[in-house]
Amino acid sequence: MKNQPTHSPSPEAMDAYWMPFTANRDFKQSPRLIASAKGHHYISNDGRKIYDGFSGLWTTGIGHCHPKIVEAVQKQVGELDLCMGFQLGHNKAFELADKLTNLAPEGFDHAFFANSGSESVDTALKIALGYHRVRGDAGRTRLIGRQRGYHGVNFGGISVGGIAPNRKMFSANLINGVDHLPHTHNLEHAAFSHGQPEWGGHLVAELEHLVALHDASTIAAVIVEPVPGSTGILPPPVGYLERLREICTKHGILLIFDEVITAFGRIGAPFAAQRFGVTPDLITTAKGLTNGVIPMGAVLATDTIYQAFMQGPEQSIELFHGYTYSGHPVAAAAGLATLEVYEQEGSFQQSRELETLFAEAIHQFDDHPTVIDVRNFGLMGAIELAPRSGAPGARGLDAHKHCFWDEDLVIRNGMDILQFSPFLNSKPEDLESMFDAVRRVLDQIS
Ligand SMILES: Cc1ncc(COP(=O)(O)O)c(C=O)c1O
Question: Among the atoms of ligand 1, which is closest to the Cα of residue 261?
Fold first, then answer.
């Protein structure tokens, strides 16, 4: 590969850091290292300007090192670095909760802060279980996720999640009483759909089967990503989410939308709930909450849920849950600055306006010989490559590496699925050049 260095830190020198979701031994042979970032580009250790086609890791929608966020963080860290978050508070956490709930769908009046998407998910599952219990409905303990769902890596999240490699090493220890709805991807019926596939809405009926099997009185909540992202972008079939809401309501089951990716403009609205016109009972967020600058997650809850907990003696803690860094001052400052920039720059509208161009650009690969599916919704897109015989994932990783070394481009591959998460404020010409580069790579690798 063109720019692949002949020497770099030796694998031994890099041994101490056990990298997350990375092929450590392969990576350390020829590490792809980033020294700095600005706007839409990374600068690699070898000084190349690299276009970031994944906006961080679905995180950095308004670009790297946004000056207003940088300034807010720098100011905050010198003013109040940390404040104990249990039985003590600081203004910015309250202010952020206020701004966040104002952006959320009607009725979401409360925010519980965490430090990541995984923590937000486990927090939401606990709130769902606790909600039924505090209302005297403690028999509702079952949780329902969906095949191919990604809800982070904590035990709750992998239990309701549906990605086999993330589960199998821990399978004996996953939490009890979890079922999964079928995923909605189908190459035969829905390959190369533009946006929401027409096929697949009927699959939601499996929830009625689970209710018939277990009885609604045992089921606490269903959790889904409105648009599953990490598994390779599976837009919801037409009517699916609406029907899911109806079935949950009918049976008194809480509906949780995991919006760790889909919130904050990724699909052209503050939240996917608003874009689809479907209102869940709990929403999890992270990533775009601070533009990825400082780790932070949040669970948004309706007033009904919150008020159910606000019972009993006033001096008693209502929810025995929280993190040392819940509502961390520096993260809160980053969150406030981020939400302000979204508003000032009209980021969600910018994202919405780029959708058509993005859809057209990505679907140019529909007839590429190595491609078996192309999917898109909002500014989320996937090109699924045919796996090489006996080497699943190899073609995808090859494409990722060629993009990095030959084309100065970062894209993500999940096995053989190339994933794209462009900036909400992308320049149209940059999107075009990104896909030109991807085409050169796909034409070159076999
Ligand atoms: C839908 C969803 N939920 C949860 C998570 C986990 O977030 P984190 O990696 O911040 O723990 C992710 C991460 O990509 C995600 O996409």
Answer: 16
Which residues span the domain enclosing 370? Answer: 12-65+347-444
Note if the pTM is more than 0.90.
Answer: yes
Report which of 407, 428, 426 is spatially closest to residue 418, judged by C-alpha positions.
Answer: 407
Instruction: Return left, alpha or beta for 295; rule: phi > 0 is left, psi -120 to 50 is alpha, else beta.
Output: beta
The dihedral sign for the CA sequence 211, 213, 217, 221: negative
What digits encode the pLDDT tens for the residues 188-246? 999 999 999 999 999 999 999 999 999 999 999 999 999 999 999 999 999 999 999 99
Q: What residues contact residue 70 under an 8 Å CB cut-off, 6+ apart?
A: 293
CA 284 to ligand 1: nearest atom: 3
Q: Which of 345, 360, 375 is the last residue of a domain?
A: 345
pLDDT band at 95; cut points 50, 70, 90: very high
Number of domains in the chain: 2
Give the type of residue at 405: W
Which atom number of ligand 1 is nearest to the Cα of residue 157?
4
* β-bridge mates for residue 302, sequence order: 108
- 114 CB less than 6 Å from ligand 1? no
The domain boundary residue, chosen from 345, 367, 382: 345
CA–centroid distance, 423 to ligand 1, in Å, is 18
